[in-house]
Amino acid sequence: MKRMVRQQFIPARHSRHRVAALALYRALFKAGRKVPLPKDLQHPGPTHPVAHIARKRFLKERGLTSSRLIYNCMAAGYKFLTLLTKSQTVDSPEHSQIIQHLRKRSEKSALSRSKAPPPRKEKRYSPPIFAKVSSPGQAPRYESTFRPLPKSAISGERKVPVLGSTAEGQVFLRFKKPQPRLLNHLVFKRTKRWRTGMLKLLKVQNYGFKVAKQEDNWDKLVDKLMLEEGVQSTVIPDTKTSTYYWSQRLAKAWYEDKLDRTWEDWVARGKAMDQLIEAERALADEERKIPKEPIDEAEAAAIRTETLDNILGTARQRHEEREEAQRNRPFEDPFMAPRWLELVANLEKTQPKEPMEHPIKNWREAYAKEGKPAPRVTPASAIDEFERIKASRREI
Q1: What gap in Å lies between CA 153 and CA 72, rounded to an integer?
Q2: Which strand (E) or helix (H) includes residue 131?
Q3: pTM of the prediction?
Q4: Is 5 within the bounds of a domain?
Q5: In 3-state terms, what secondary structure has residue 203?
Q6: How far apart are CA 126 and CA 313, in angstroms?
Q7: Cα 304 to Cα 63: distance, rounded to the nearest angstrom
Q8: Residue 395 belongs to a domain
Q9: Does the pLDDT at position 263 exceed 50?
Q10: Among residues of the chain, what percentage have pLDDT more than 90?
């Protein structure tokens, strides 16, 4: 027969223990509120000091699961219930004991409040490991700011970072385990931005072009019907870039360019990371060949702290200078950038001259070939003309 394993006793899930603990808490709270106190010990708030102490003790011990500790706490609670009941008499020894305890607590809290809090250490931020050193308009290029560190700034053996990559191709460095939460947040944020751009591009390719063609065909049909009625539209697309299809081509080119810029940035970061890994690996191989000698740990720690502070201080100063230069740089319209203008110019060259044959323009050319003057048409908007046609049909 299998031996049954005794389950662990969890007081919070035991109904009898909960009833007994709540009954003891209420009894202590009520008895504590009935203890008379002098005016200098009375709390300005609505809670009695003795009842407040009882509540704090219950909150402190509520996480106990040991049967021995729970038994001791319950036994002490019943003893204090007797003490608080007897201390309700002013001249009793129990009352004097309660008053003495409250005075000690009051003096201790007043002494702690009189002392100034210890000064907080200056919070120093860690500068970025890589900095973008390329000028605006150039291909992105990154360099390491303060790594690889010298041997005097490292405790123990040098650990070579590991290159990591996501499914989208984003690269990052792992210096330690577990992976820092800030790095997880940064990788997730960049991945989300990349996927959002891809979804927008796919929406234009799979849905935008179809809708644009239908809109252009609809405009063509409306212009043809208006021409049959002897009315000319007030808006005539006389250029090859005045169609909905062209707007979708621009949208596709914009999203593709943004994704290309992101990919170029990731490639530049990957090259800088690879260079850093190779430098760290070369230093690690050289340091392994150096024989180890006994050193003073305290002196080595002081030298390590001083060296690291100097290196990080210089890196912080350079980072602030780059940020200041970035803030002082004038605003650049992305739609006026040379790269985007060149891309749009190339798209215009590949755009057909007549993406959607306009009936009014073809109709005029047909009359011109025959040598006949084109009849005059009345300019009007499509909505106004449809209203006029509907009204005339109602009269008929």
Answers
A1: 52
A2: strand 130-132
A3: 0.62
A4: no
A5: helix
A6: 9
A7: 42
A8: no
A9: yes
A10: 31
